[in-house]
Each structure stands twice: as C-alpha cells, then as structure tokens.
C-alpha cells in the first residue's frame, strides 16, 4: 500500500492523515502556518507572526514613520498624503537621496546632478514631460523646427528664411547659421517652456523645478503641496500622463 500522507517537516510518510497528524503532534512537526504579510517568513503561531511584523514594520499597509497599520492600501495612501506627512522625504527615484520637496528633487535632476541618472538634465526632463503632456497642461507648445539636443539647440535648415538665418523667437536675423546657434543657446532664449496649469495664472517658468516651487507655495491655490509631492515621481520618470 502507498503511504501518501507526509509529515510537513521531516517528510516521513504515513498510511493515513490521522497517523501523520499524530506523528506531527507528537514531535511538533507541523509546518509553520502563519506568514508575514510582506516577506516570505513563516511562523508557527499568530502571535509570533505579529511579533515579527511589529518588529520589522512588515504589515501590508503600514506607515513606518508613524508605526501605524491600516486596513487597506487606500487608507494608507490617504494617510501618507495627509498633513502629517506633508513635507516628508521625497527620494530621488534613481539615487534614493532624499529631498524635502518635489522642486528640490527636480532641481537635482534638471541640473544633471544625479549620479545614477547622468543622462537626465533640463532638456531631457522637458522631453519626458512633453511626451506625457500632449494637451499642454504644464508645457508650452513645442516649436517644431529646431531640435533639442542635450543642452544645445541645433539650428535646422528650416531656420533659413531665404536671405538669412532667422530666430523663431525674436525674429532677429543672422548671416551665419553658427551665429543663430549661439544666439539660441544664449541666456536670451533660456526659454520659459513651462507654465502654471492654472489657466487663470499667467506664470511661466524656465525649469520644471521652478514650476513645482510655484505650485508648492500654493500662491495660486491650484493644488496642495502634498499633491505636488505625490505626482513628482510619475512626472520625472515619465510613467504617467500629466493630469492633476
Ligand atoms: Zn516528522
Ligand atoms: Zn516579514
Ligand atoms: Zn504615517
Ligand atoms: Zn538622484
Ligand atoms: Zn532670438
Ligand atoms: Zn500659478
């Protein structure tokens, strides 16, 4: 006959579940039945599992800062976005260095200071944001005929108006392409490529950090400080379409 009933610990087999249970009772060979809500650890009793989760903060919906657990993810999220956590740390998604605000983090990325994301700078962030913002909620419409390349604006042949190289922003004319290139890359045209998403607010910005800073100040009451913080990761990593 087959012994199909296995001990959960030593894998001895028995002819019946009853026999297997007796063995496991006698030798304390029951497998652990209580799992940690987040890590793979298992425990023999509910209280041992609770003790582990309390010690490590491994509850499924848990705020480590406040040592509070929540019944579901939604409640935890509401808590994290509440006043209590206003101004809490915003880690850089690439190097994990903490910033106190979305504008601080964005400034770090826009000036190309992130060691783990050296490919990011103001122009690159702008490209990412534009891709997510086809309706121009925070970016001004792109003027098509010049190419943004890292930090250098390249003048394309379309800038030639038949007699001179013309700046599309101020319509100044140059007799050499190279002079227009210099002009476009000069501080004159550090363009204000972002605008406040509040259509009643006329403010425009050269950098995304400056826009976030404006929103964080809540001066035009468009959005709350903490919702700026909530959106920053999705925006700088290009994960979501812009929509506040
Ligand atoms: Zn056993
Ligand atoms: Zn755990
Ligand atoms: Zn908390
Ligand atoms: Zn970083
Ligand atoms: Zn110009
Ligand atoms: Zn505004």
UniProtKB/TrEMBL annotation:
<dbReference type="GO" id="GO:0000981">
    <property type="term" value="F:DNA-binding transcription factor activity, RNA polymerase II-specific"/>
</dbReference>
<dbReference type="InterPro" id="IPR036236">
    <property type="entry name" value="Znf_C2H2_sf"/>
</dbReference>
<dbReference type="InterPro" id="IPR013087">
    <property type="entry name" value="Znf_C2H2_type"/>
</dbReference>
<dbReference type="Pfam" id="PF12874">
    <property type="entry name" value="zf-met"/>
</dbReference>
<keyword id="KW-0479">Metal-binding</keyword>
<protein>
    <submittedName>
        <fullName>Zinc finger protein, putative</fullName>
    </submittedName>
</protein>
<keyword id="KW-0862">Zinc</keyword>
<dbReference type="InterPro" id="IPR022755">
    <property type="entry name" value="Znf_C2H2_jaz"/>
</dbReference>
<keyword id="KW-0677">Repeat</keyword>
<feature type="domain" description="C2H2-type">
    <location>
        <begin position="165"/>
        <end position="194"/>
    </location>
</feature>
<keyword id="KW-0863">Zinc-finger</keyword>
<dbReference type="GO" id="GO:0008270">
    <property type="term" value="F:zinc ion binding"/>
</dbReference>
<dbReference type="GO" id="GO:0005634">
    <property type="term" value="C:nucleus"/>
</dbReference>
<feature type="domain" description="C2H2-type">
    <location>
        <begin position="61"/>
        <end position="90"/>
    </location>
</feature>
<feature type="domain" description="C2H2-type">
    <location>
        <begin position="5"/>
        <end position="34"/>
    </location>
</feature>
<dbReference type="Pfam" id="PF12171">
    <property type="entry name" value="zf-C2H2_jaz"/>
</dbReference>
<dbReference type="GO" id="GO:0000977">
    <property type="term" value="F:RNA polymerase II transcription regulatory region sequence-specific DNA binding"/>
</dbReference>
<feature type="domain" description="C2H2-type">
    <location>
        <begin position="34"/>
        <end position="58"/>
    </location>
</feature>
């Amino acid at each position: 006959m087959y012994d199909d009933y296995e001990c959960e610990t030593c894998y001895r087999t028995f002819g019946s579940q009853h026999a297997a249970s007796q063995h496991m009772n006698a030798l304390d060979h029951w497998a652990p039945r209580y799992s940690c809500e987040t890590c793979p650890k298992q425990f023999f009793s509910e209280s041992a599992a609770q003790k582990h989760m309390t010690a490590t903060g491994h509850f499924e919906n848990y705020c480590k800062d406040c040592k509070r657990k929540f019944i579901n993810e939604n409640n935890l999220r509401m808590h994290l976005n509440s006043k209590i956590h206003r101004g809490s740390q915003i880690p850089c998604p690439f190097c994990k260095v903490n910033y106190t605000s979305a504008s601080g983090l964005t400034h770090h990325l826009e000036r190309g200071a992130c060691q783990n994301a050296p490919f990011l700078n103001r122009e690159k962030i702008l490209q990412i944001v534009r891709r997510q913002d086809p309706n121009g909620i925070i970016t001004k419409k792109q003027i098509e005929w010049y190419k943004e390349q890292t930090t250098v604006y390249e003048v394309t042949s379309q800038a030639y108006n038949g007699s001179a190289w013309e700046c599309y922003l101020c319509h100044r004319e140059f007799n050499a392409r190279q002079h227009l290139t210099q002009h476009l890359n000069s501080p004159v045209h550090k363009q204000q490529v972002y605008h406040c998403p509040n259509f009643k607010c006329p403010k425009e910005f050269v950098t995304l950090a400056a826009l976030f800073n404006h929103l964080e100040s809540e001066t035009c009451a468009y959005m709350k400080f903490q919702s700026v913080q909530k959106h920053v990761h999705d925006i700088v990593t290009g994960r979501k379409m812009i929509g506040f």
